[in-house]
Amino acid sequence: MGMTAAEKILARTSGKSAVKAGDIVYPKPDFVMIHDGVVRGAKEELDALGIGRVFDPERVLMVTDHDVVYVNDRAAARGAFNREAAKAWGVKHFFDAGRGGHGHIFPTERGWVLPGTLYFDNDRHCTNAGGIGALAIRMGTEINRVLATGTNWTLVPKSVKLTIRGKLQPGVFARDLGFVIGKNLAPGGDFGVDIDYRVLEFAGELDQFSLAARVSLCSTPTEMRAIGVFFPPSPEIVEYAKQRAQRPFTPVYPDADARYDAEVELDVGSLKPQVALPGGPHKAADLASVAGTPVSHTYIGSCGSGMYEDLEIAASILKGKKLAYGVRMIVVPGSEDSTRRMTREGLLDIFHDAGAMVIPAGCGPCASGRTGLIDSGETSISTAVANGAGRFGAKDAQLYLGSPATVAASAVTGRITDPREFLPA
Amino acid sequence: MNEFQWLLKGRCYKLGHDVPHPGGVIPNWLIAGRYLDPKDLVPHLFEETDPGFHTRCKPGDIIVTGRNFGMGPKMNGYIAMQALGLGLVCESMPFLAYRAAIGCGVRVLTDCVNVTEMCETGDELEIDFRDGFFINHTKDIRREYPPMPDTLMEIVELGGNAGWLKDWQEKRRAGAA
Questions:
Q1: Chain A residues inside the 8 Å CB shell of B168
Q2: What is the ipTM of this complex?
Q3: Could you read off the pLDDT of A33-59 as tens digits, one per residue?
Q4: Binning pLDDT at 50, 70 and 90, where does residue B2 land?
Q5: Are strands B7-14 and B124-128 parallel, antiparallel or unpaired?
Q6: Which of A30, A61, A101, A210 measures 20 to 30 Å from A191, CA to CA?
Q7: Which residues 199-228 in chain A show a CB within 8 A of chain B?
Q8: Is residue A149 less than 8 Å (CB to CB) from chain B?
Q9: Residue A144 with chain B: CB contacts under 8 Å
């Protein structure tokens, strides 16, 4: 019996020729990531047990993306603690505030996350690794065991195969598709599958999806409780990875006779621009059904739309235009490298000329509203990964999600707007 | 470690399907407030549906639930269950709820299909978590469910993730000495 991509990656890292869904294994990850919000908890727990070291300081990435611009005393104290923790653990790859950027974006751009990679993370949005053909598994608070010992028990997940048929029309983006996939994966959704702790493995007409598009397709299934998402890497993506690889890698592809928990198909050819209605990224609706809804808060960034291409799409709409009266826009690049590239390629001027605020790379407002908050009664449209009540502050604010193009178009008009009105025919 | 009780004999406390962790198991304010001390959590277990539960349950009692128990990947409710010496038997759980229960050292069986049809609250149950044997003495029903995997039993026996790490560190120190 063949293996799914996730089974192959877990077999390799567990030192086994084969594993199957349902096995419990102890994989040795290529590296381990921990973000700024949970370092203190992990460090204090390990210190209390007398564990003052990590399993391999060379293979630990500490990233700072939740609280980048310290906006209160607590955040400043957390930053100070994390710097001391990095020193005490001897972590060489410590990406402090202002270095690196979003932990689920820049490690792919910098060649840490490569086709076939396995890494453990405290945070569930590590599933972005699937965009390049890697697997990352969330350990939550048990990241402390991984930091101490280098591994933890891992249930080999089942996989659900999603075959994409047809091509997205111009003006319809991966994020629009992501909301629809979320709707179909949700309980009672058309796919009729259980996605809890499954890997969603994409197949079919995938050449239309750039690396950025693939990364952005990883976030909504995660919100539906997928443990991973996987795209078989194209030759172009393998080449991209080769150019920046931090270590040798071997791309992984599923076997033709792999066993899936379920196999579903989706024809995307007739898809129109979507929004996710307030309440969840799976609440997909045709944009037309809410077109014209006034907005005042707009935001581009997050795990869901944090690659450079997402910024380019938004900038292509904002170029030469101004944000509507009473609308603010927060732009959060996924990486400091993207911010520098925005400077070089003129995107920073486009955003600034439009009246947008570009803040340092990281999670931005999506990290439980630490920056760029929204007030009671306001309406937002953004590219955040999630839009449950209170995600950016006030619990009674209305939070819509859209593609970077939709968010930019809506910021220009001050109401939810179909981006095709701004794109060349 | 030898005296760890894998076989529990106690009363059944039955819950339905889709009981969420926040509210259904323990009030959300304890989760949001990051209360992790059993002393803080125990008085509030099942408080919103059954106030005073902790004064009536006894070590060895078994919580039996329907499908999709404990939505929400948090630990607080399982910390209280572990401290009270309760067992947990579910028709199904989201994986991260199961992981949290194991990580908190709770004796837990999941994927016990239709187990809620085999018992009512107050029935005298006997559950062996090592082999998945289920006996309802009140109704004279015997069933066999998937047991706890050995590698996870080791974690539960040591009190959960923190206990496992403590043991690992002690062995490492002893090995180095």
A1: 148-149
A2: 0.95
A3: 999 999 999 999 999 999 999 999 999
A4: low
A5: antiparallel
A6: A210
A7: 225, 227
A8: yes
A9: 161, 165
Q: Do A142 and B73 touch (CB under 8 A)?
A: no
Query: In angstroms, how far is CA B91 from the centroid of its own chain?
Result: 13
Report how far residue A261's alpha carbon sits from residue A157's, in angstroms, rounded to the nearest whole number. 10
Distances (CA, A) of B126 to A60, B12, B150: 45, 9, 20
Give B155's contacts in chain A (Cβ within 8 Å).
Answer: 153
CA distance A80 to A4: 43
Question: How many C-beta neighbours within 10 Å does residue B6 have?
Answer: 16
CB < 8 Å to A140, chain B: 73, 96, 99-100
Residues B9-22 have a mean pLDDT of: 97
Angle between helices A404-413 and A308-318 (to 10 degrees): 30
Tell me what the pLDDT averaged over chain A comes to.
97
CA-based radius of gyration for chain A: 21
A196 touches chain B (CB under 8 A): yes
pTM of the model: 0.96
pLDDT band at A122; cut points 50, 70, 90? very high
